[in-house]
Design a protein that fits this description.
8 helices; 6-stranded mixed β-sheet; 259 residues; Rossmann fold; globular; alpha/beta; 2 domains; 36% helix
């Protein structure tokens, strides 16, 4: 399987005393589902910012499809823990935010699109609100809807832009258990439907095992090597009830104790 992202001997630090990655190499293939887990402060969110092109390695190379990543790419989407919704905008306005920005910069981030392209992508926003069950609340504001609805609004805003990479930073941490489980299944279904590459940061061992067919375990910094646990069963129905799932959770606990 061809590499989508490749980190080659990457180094990144916030200060000389806060080295997060040192000579760190890791590879993500297109279409894979990854979970990233590790202790607080280990660099999980920093890794997402690097992949999103919001921060850049100070040493080494970060390649996408063999090309050096030098700026955020329009096909990459990052969903933050607080969803990143505008509190003064309705659900529909929030879901259309990326489209309104693209109206000025175009799908490649440089060239403005035609009016026909603008109409098409605006229709996509309504399509995703419908697909995610948000049409009844499209005129409401984020403060007036549930946490699960806010998360689905952030997902709708992302999918309207037709990304190929979905980065999520602890997206379900503040949700109740039933809502969290429903959204985990939703993300898994959408990944298959849209042929997305997904990289999801989590503090939860159980969530990492449900969402990641490959699981990257980070340690207290500096991270020097990629510890990867294979988990191919994650895409199977009722996987969380299987003995294999429990075995993977056990491996993750052992790995986290070691790191």
């Amino acid at each position: 399987m061809a590499a989508m992202f490749e980190l080659r001997s990457v180094g990144f630090q916030y200060t000389p005393k806060a080295v997060i990655f040192k000579d760190f190499s890791w590879q993500v293939s297109r279409g894979q589902a990854w979970s990233v887990i590790g202790p607080s402060g280990c660099g999980k969110s920093t890794l997402l910012y690097l992949l999103a092109g919001l921060r850049f390695p100070q040493q080494g190379q970060l390649l996408i499809d063999g090309q050096l990543l030098t700026r955020p790419r329009p096909e990459s989407s990052l969903i933050l823990q607080d969803y990143g919704l505008l509190p003064w905008a309705t659900v529909l306005e929030n879901a259309s935010l990326g489209l309104r920005i693209r109206k000025f910069y175009g799908p490649d981030g440089t060239h403005a699109p035609s009016q026909e392209e603008i109409r098409d992508i605006q229709q996509d926003a309504m399509h995703w609100l419908d697909r995610l069950g948000l049409l009844p609340v499209r005129t409401q504001y984020p403060g007036h809807i549930s946490g699960g609805q806010r998360q689905r609004t952030a997902i709708a805003r992302t999918l309207a832009l037709n990304p190929d990479l979905l980065l999520m930073d602890e997206p379900f941490a503040s949700l109740d258990a039933p809502t969290r489980e429903n959204l985990q299944h939703l993300v898994s279904d959408l990944r298959h439907e849209q042929q997305l590459t997904t990289i999801i940061v989590t503090h939860s061992i159980e969530e990492a095992a449900v969402l990641g067919e490959q699981i990257l375990v980070l340690s207290q910094p500096p991270n020097r090597s990629a510890v990867v646990i294979a988990n191919p069963g994650a895409s199977q129905p009722d996987y969380s009830s299987s003995p294999t799932y429990l075995q993977v959770c056990g491996k993750l606990r052992q790995a986290l104790e070691v790191v």
